[in-house]
Amino acid sequence: MKCPYCSSENTRVIDSRPADDNCSIRRRRLCDDCGKRFTTYEKVETIPLIVIKKDNNREQYDRSKIEAGILRACHKRPVSAAQINQLVDEIETEIFDREEKEVPSSVIGEIVMDKLRGLEAVAYVRFASVYREFKDINTFMNELKKILDK
Predict the structure, then answer these.
(1) Which residues face 104 on adjacent strands?
(2) Looking at the structure, do residues 71 and 98 belong to the same domain, yes or no?
């Protein structure tokens, strides 16, 4: 592992423990050349996942796209960064637990909406309005009525 400060490859692990999410390992490292310490996280590499888009194009799964959509939906809402990270972790776990090599984006969108519905109603409606491409106010109102009925 290269030192982020001096780019030396002479680094060693001085402490190793499970990270807060219990899905990765947190390692404290020491650079033998400059003496500075830094932290790295080690995560199990999963099989590459391909997402099938609405237009049938395929692209590699990208966690940051889910995170960006949720961040936009939760903008100016009482949702913490920790809650968003936990939500993305839960969504990612559910996607990878399917053990499929290709997953339609519609399945991912439904999982995201299901998780957002339980977290924050306004964020859910924001995400659903973009994801489901609401064409008019009636479609929007129908979705709101579904939330109010539950």
Answers:
(1) 52
(2) yes
In a domain, 62, yes or no: yes
Has residue 11 got a pLDDT over 90? yes
* Residue 129 phi, psi (nearest 5): -65, -35
Q: Would you place residue 128 in the very low, low, confident or very high pLDDT band (cuts 50, 70, 90)? A: confident
Sequence-ordered alpha helix ranges (H) in the chain: 63-73, 81-97, 105-119, 121-131, 137-149
Q: Which domain holds residue 32?
A: 11-43
Distance between CA atoms of residues 48 and 127, nearest Å: 26
- Both tokens of 98, joined, read 């399917």
- Looking at residue 88, its pLDDT comes to 92
Residue 87 has pLDDT above 90, yes or no: yes
Whether 87 and 106 share a structural domain:
yes
**Gap between the Cα atoms of 139 and 119, Å rounded:** 22
